[in-house]
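yo, non-specific serine/threonine protein kinase is done. seq:
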Amino acid sequence: MFSFHKMAVAFTVLVFACLCSFVSPDAQGDALFALRISLRALPNQLSDWNQNQVNPCTWSQVICDDKNLVTSLTLSDMNFSGTLSSRIGALENLKTLTLKGNGITGEIPEDVGNLTSLTSLDLEDNQLTGRIPSTIGNLKKLQFLTLSRNKLNGTIPESLTGLPNLLNLLLDSNSLTGQIPQSLFEIPKYNFTSNNLNCGGGQPHPCVSEVAHSGDSSKPKTGIIAGVVAGVTVILFGILLFLFCKDRHKGYRRDVFVDVAGEVDRRIAFGQLKRFAWRELQLATDNFSEKNVLGQGGFGKVYKGVLPDNTKIAVKRLTDFESPGGDAAFQREVEMISVAVHRNLLRLIGFCTTQTERLLVYPFMQNLSLAHSLRELKADDPVLDWETRKRIALGAARGFEYLHEHCNPKIIHRDVKAANVLLDEDFEAVVGDFGLAKLVDVRRTNVTTQVRGTMGHIAPEYLSTGKSSERTDVFGYGIMLLELVTGQRAIDFSRLEEEDDVLLLDHVCIITHQNSFSQALFTIIILGIFVLDR
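structure:
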């Protein structure tokens, strides 16, 4: 039976490996939280915006890039009645900002000119007053500027003429006055109507561009186009159906490499994921060659593949989905991926289903897995320094924290180990392989009829009772940290030559029994350095 002392050792190593310290939220989180306050968000609005959380990339309505930089913020039609915080200028990597359809008052802060990566700014249908800030002229990448239906006054700033990429300029239904800079009439789509400006009514230029104006009468054309497309689609479908029936009548057998309509399982919904053809993935993986095998899990192998555009992918092929648990595992993984989107979680990009196959497509991780980087490096491969190991530990922790705290229902991974912590090109941790995971409904017990996981990583209470919880993953995470520090496997039968225990946790506990705690910790560190040098 595992003792509390053993758990304490694992926890202490966890603390050491992560070099845990309290850190304050970054400038992005501060700026977003200040915006939430200034907009007077209700308690039930943006309730997951936690000021004490270092990384705001898990917050609702916020999108980040792969470097955890906030690139998109959409807060439309939320009935805010406050003002825009000047702190918004700290979001220097923001590309799209959409706050339309609220009751936002006050002026547009000059600090918006600091958003030099912005391509789209939409503040339509609010109660904004004051002048259009001239600092918007600093946004050289801006393509879409929508300030319609506000109470803006004053003149249109001359600085807007210095926006070389501007495609849409919508300033209608305000209280703007004066002259419109001539070059703004050259923008493909503009609208200056319902203002007191020098356009229309005998002026040289109309108040609305032809493109914007013609948009009002586009609906009938859209209907005609839709009808034509639908008709052509029906005809093509009829032709294909005829050819298919004719082909079957002649007795020809379809090649197993080709997808047909009947091979698609309509019971499974996949949202906006890309549907790959079987032949497409077969070619990408060189007919699922063994030389392209990246690893093998409980429900099938993972293959490296290359698409025609040279995009590298990882294809998980479920070879036993017809057996008990196989098909359910496939649907479970798709379900979880649809609700678990985070920088430190493996992103599903597509799938393939036929009558005989189930495949999932992921982005290829350049540095494979933590297990590979610890124990399977070639002579010229870089080793993991301590700073990188700390970053991997923290990244994996953020991924698991998202599964436990930000998914509803929460997700228990149940197979946390170094082999399931993948590493991208920057050695950032990406938690993968949800094939063994379980969607936990908070209204039900966490009892499972079958213990899943990898020996050496399974929590003792899970092994004895079959009940899994967040603690199951925390235990596995602690074992993974021991692997991260020592470089050793969680279970290694070669240890039987010198001691009775094959488990890494027991091995560490033996060290603590034979030495003082400080000496034991020092021994663990030296052991890790020895593995690095070797």
